[in-house]
Automatic annotation (TrEMBL):
SUPFAM superfamilies: FAD-linked oxidoreductase (SSF51730). Residues 39-289 form the Proline dehydrogenase domain. This is proline dehydrogenase. The lineage of its organism: Bacteria, Pseudomonadati, Thermodesulfobacteriota, Desulfuromonadia, Desulfuromonadales. It comes from Geothermobacter ehrlichii. Gene3D superfamilies: 3.20.20.220.
């Protein structure tokens, strides 16, 4: 990691909001749902699907959860009205998981029920390990009630993930597989990048072999290659899986995936809570700041 990147990573929590906004603006659609609609429409026009996410997590009151639930219902209605090729991603903590588990499930249930009515789909994001068990329980309950309208995220860095896949294999499965973004203890998560990559491929192979629909969420060229190899080996049709990437990240790789005939979905976040999301992205990948700075200075 360059000195500049180390500096960004270490000081990110103290960098003033306007500076973070400057570096992160390409990774967020904007503050309002209409921004996410505009970005989704542009991407749809290029043959790319989206998943819309309203930013906000680890809330402190159930009123906030109620507001996020209403926002999510509004997103689903808007996708339907605007005829977008888009679905919804949400975070269980945003729905109140860490405040009142039953209420959080009720909130998510209402959203998935609306998605089912509209013929759409809800992806439940995966947060840190304080949320894993409950999130998987919610997924299990909701897929039984609304089959085909809900999926969950699994993280390749967690040692438990292969066992979670096996435990969920008693009904059709719909996963997003990603490396995992939270700072987990070594007892729970692989720490070495090479190990995490091997785990990703190992789990992806198991998921595809078990007939799961997988959103293969990575910008790592090695993993994209491995995923293409696996779908080819298993003779899967393009509608049996999809690649997924974050808005604003490695658009060249995005185009390569689409040009090769694979389906791709971009995660389109919007909302007023852009600061924690942006800080997380910058901490995870300080080279974002370096790229933006180079562009600004025309280097
Ligand atoms: P890696 O981090 O090795 O990145 C590969 C290359 O991609 C880097 O060298 C860099 O060039 C580029 N890159 C990666 N991330 C970038 C970024 N943010 N900005 C600019 N360049 C970047 N995690 C989680 O714990 N729960 C979840 O629910 C989700 N959901 C989710 C949805 C989608 C659609 C994606 C793509 C990712 C997630 N993640 C997530 C995040 C995921 O766990 C992981 O942290 C990031 O995708 C980065 O991992 P990569 O596989 O891209 O590899």
């Amino acid at each position: 990691m360059s000195l500049f990147n180390q500096l960004v990573s270490r000081t990110i929590m103290h960098i003033p909001a306007p500076v973070v906004r400057f570096f992160a603006k390409g990774y967020i659609a904007g503050e309002r749902l209409e921004d996410a609609v505009r970005v989704s429409r542009e991407l749809n026009g290029r043959g790319i699907m989206t998943t819309i996410d309203v930013l906000g997590e680890f809330i402190t009151t159930l009123d906030q959860a109620e507001n996020f639930k209403r926002e999510c219902l509004g997103i689903l209605d808007t996708i339907d009205r605007e005829k977008l090729d888009a679905n919804l991603s949400l975070k269980p903590s945003q729905m109140g998981l860490l405040l009142d588990r039953e209420q959080a499930l009720a909130n998510i249930r209402e959203i998935v029920a609306r998605a089912a009515d509209l013929g759409n789909f809800v992806r439940i994001d995966m947060e840190d390990i304080s949320c894993t068990d409950a999130t998987l329980d919610f997924y299990r309950a909701l897929r039984e009630e609304f089959p085909g309208h809900v999926g969950v995220v699994l993280q390749a860095y967690l040692r438990r993930t292969p066992a979670d896949v096996a435990a969920l294999a008693d009904a059709p499965m719909n996963f997003r597989l990603c490396k995992g973004i939270y700072n987990e203890p070594r007892t729970a998560a692989w720490k070495n990048q090479e190990t995490i990559n091997r785990s990703f491929v190992h789990i992806l192979e198991k998921m595809l072999a078990a007939g799961a629909y997988v959103g293969i969420a990575t910008h790592d060229e090695k993993l994209v290659f491995e995923a293409m190899r696996l779908v080819d080996e298993q003779g899967l049709k393009p509608e049996q899986y999809e690649f997924q990437m974050l808005l604003g990240v490695d658009e060249e790789l995005r185009d390569i995936i689409v040009a090769a005939g694979h389906r791709l979905r971009v995660y389109v976040p919007y909302g007023e809570s852009w600061l924690p999301y942006s800080r997380r992205r910058l901490k995870e990948n300080p080279s974002i700041a370096e790229h933006a700075l180079r562009q600004m200075l025309n280097m």
